[in-house]
Please model this.
Amino acid sequence: MYKNDALSRTPPLVDQAFQQLRHDVLIGTYGPGVKLKLDELQTAYGFSSSPLREALSRLAQEGLVRADERRGFRVATISEEDLADITRMRVMLDVQALRESIAYGDDAWEASIVGAFHRLEKVEGRLGDGPVVLDDEWTELHTAFHAALISACPSDRLRAWSASLFDQAERYRRYSARHRKTSKRKSSEHKKLMDATLRRDVDSACAMLEEHILSTQRNVMATLAQHPIPAS
Model:
């Protein structure tokens, strides 16, 4: 019985392939424009072609991979234009999601934000002088903190689109961090954003979130200017 229960909790192969591929695309294991060859992916991950194709199709729907009938799948490129579009959409959607979350959030929502920030701050305090964005645990908790902020937004679609755009921006954050010479800590920005949100100061919280998003764009743009993406 216990064996069957354990098996029932194992994610389907497609989901496993999707999560592993997604993680490696986000952290830059496969660089911008790199061709994702099925035979090489089968060797690397141990999945057959069927779940890998489905996983790649799902990644294409998220904008992390580009599909071409003749050329197969490639990691989405990185460009100033793409980042500008991601940023514009994030400002439109994330700020509205936060506004609605503040309007509808209850005590449990507030507690989830405080807990997410506490975990993020603790991990950041344990890290060395390198860019925190390159640490997988910090990245996971950073994602959780931003998700907690908008978790009371009543629109499932709005939250899902915000999450997708957050992940698309993650590749840019990591690219910038890999070329950054100085450490960049975010805890003070996150605390101010959390405090304004918990005060239900809608205008201040939304303005802080917008600036938080725009500062990421500025940092990445500066990196791209100094370290252009090689043509694939």
Remarks:
- The chain has a mean pLDDT of 89.
- The longest strand covers residues 65-68.
- The longest helix spans residues 80-104.
- Strands lie at 35-36, 65-68, 72-75.
